[in-house]
Amino acid sequence: MKKEVKMLRSILSLRNFSIRATDGEIGKVKDFYFDDQTWTLRYLVVETGNWLMGRKVLISTSALHAPDWNNQTFPVDLTQDQVKHSPDIDTEKPVTREQEADLHSHYRWPWDRGGISFLTTGMVGGVIAPDIPFEERIAMETNNDETPEASPRHLRSFRQLVDFRIRTSEDQIGELHDFLLNDSDWSIPYMIVEAGSWYSGDKLLAPTKFVDRIEWESMSVNYLKTTSSLKNAPVFDYDQLDKEDFITRYETSYTGNSLGGNLH
Question: Quick one: CA dihedral 92, 97, 102, 103, positive or negative?
């Protein structure tokens, strides 16, 4: 039996994937919410078809079964009726902690800060029923460190972040073009940066663990590495993603270049 190979996936390539419920298609993926502290994909923004008048809904990565990559489909153990009666969230605005709580309560999704693997069996409403009542888990999460007001969820829309300027302490190195996702746990180890004339190639990979902060007013991402340390980074090519040694080669390149990988 051939060993399953973990791969990195372009987040742009996942747009327009279908979300398939147990009783029909829910809609198409149009955007993604990720946590910029854990660098993990958290939600898919799905535009529903005519059956729900084109409404946009959020689907947690915790609800996903293993994707059907060939047919560009994400199966979920949800029904269209569950989606129809889910909390209405304006996906053009930041998602609040209260909205997340309502959403997870409706679907009985687990409340989790980190990455989430694909679901298997024994599910209730799309996820394994938790041992701790949902209200208690929400209170535990909310009171873990700070109040909700002092500790925002750090959820970011990928669509709104595209073309943000990537800045080191010295100058601008390019613009954000894409993310690479680890398809085993939805972690986001790399940004794909469209580099300027200072770089020998068109695009380069920048490990997300070196992102200092995202500034929305200036539409920029502050990066902790120097421009000179990135000059010898390997040129990125989308055609390399389907090669089995892609992850190993890039980890080796970045380790040797004092950039460090972030894939395991």
Answer: positive
Strands 73-75 and 18-21: parallel
Residue whose token pair is 């069996």: 121
Segment holding 104, helix H or strand E: helix 97-107
What gap in Å lies between CA 225 and CA 209, rounded to an integer? 10
Distance CA 165, CA 70 (A): 33
C-alpha torsion sign, points 154, 160, 162, 165: negative
DSSP E strand boundaries for 7-144 = 8-10, 18-21, 24-35, 40-48, 56-60, 73-75
- Check: CB of residue 45 under 8 Å from CB of residue 109: no
Sign of the C-alpha dihedral, residues 229, 202, 264, 154? Answer: positive
How do residues 38-74 score in pLDDT, each as one tens digit?
A: 999 999 999 998 888 889 999 999 999 999 999 999 9
Within 10 A of 98 (CB to CB), how many other CB atoms are there? 12
Q: 3-state SS string over 35-69?
A: ECCCCEEEEEEEEECHHHCCCEEEEEHHHECCCEC
Give the model confidence (pLDDT) of 188-208 as tens digits.
999 999 998 888 889 998 999
